[in-house]
Write a sequence for this structure.
């Protein structure tokens, strides 16, 4: 037991846990005639290192790295320019509903349609028509036994015609000799917001031949235009609903005609 050397303070500090680190036996290697064993420090210094390339902006379609780790920014497209030659006010009314009629030119068995068709309901004690709905375009049709059909809910003229043709095709597949005839848009509803409050009392007082305002019955003012022949519902918040038009152009013309009147009665 007296032959083992005790660990010194320097060796205990160099190795965690107070154990001395093993040293390479260079003396035995030299005595045996072989080459000396390399030390760990020397082998680490002579090992080749490989540098990985850093990603650059646009490489392999990858975005350039940013300084923060936050969520990616959503790019919002710029709003399309308004044609001021048509919309002098800078506001474009949005189409909210289109009511169209079509003649299927045949007699229909509404009970058969309600049983065989999907998304259709028929309650003759409440309403003498089949109510059928579509998801694309999102519309509702009223189908009468005479072959007349009313299509509502479309947001554009093309969507209204497409929906009416889809309803006609559904009825045709049930065995009826359907002919798509006399498609016509009967009413278009548009809406917009002028972004300022309106004095409805003053507007009604000075425009009595054309307006009707009974706040106890209805919160909006009803204004009837002569040309184009439409009805506007004007609210104190600045919201305007235009109904009774046959074309999109009539909605635009009606709003441009009423807009100077609304600015005259703007609340300050």
């Amino acid at each position: 037991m007296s032959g083992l050397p005790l660990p010194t303070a320097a060796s205990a500090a160099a190795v965690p846990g107070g154990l001395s680190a093993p040293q390479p036996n260079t003396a035995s290697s030299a005595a045996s005639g072989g080459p000396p064993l390399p030390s760990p420090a020397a082998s680490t210094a002579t090992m080749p290192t490989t540098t990985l390339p850093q990603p650059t902006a646009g490489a392999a379609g990858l975005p350039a790295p940013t300084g923060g780790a936050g969520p990616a920014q959503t790019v919002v497209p710029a709003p399309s320019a308004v044609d001021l030659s048509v919309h002098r006010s800078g506001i474009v009314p949005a189409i909210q509903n289109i009511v169209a009629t079509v003649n299927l030119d045949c007699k229909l068995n509404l009970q058969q349609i309600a049983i065989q068709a999907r998304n259709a309901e028929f309650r003759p004690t409440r309403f003498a028509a089949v109510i059928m709905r579509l998801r694309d375009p999102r519309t509702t049709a009223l189908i009468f036994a005479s072959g007349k059909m009313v299509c509502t809910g479309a947001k554009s003229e093309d969507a209204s015609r497409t929906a009416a043709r889809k309803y006609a095709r559904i009825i045709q597949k049930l065995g009826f000799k359907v002919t798509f005839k006399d498609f016509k848009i009967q009413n278009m509803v548009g809406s917009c917001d002028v972004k300022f409050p309106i004095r409805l009392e003053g507007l009604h007082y000075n425009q009595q031949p054309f307006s009707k305002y009974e706040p106890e019955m209805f919160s909006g003012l009803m204004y009837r235009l002569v040309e184009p022949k439409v009805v506007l519902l004007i609210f104190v918040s600045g919201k305007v609903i235009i109904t009774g038009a046959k074309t999109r152009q009539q909605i635009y013309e009606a709003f441009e005609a009423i807009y100077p009147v609304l600015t005259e009665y703007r609340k300050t």
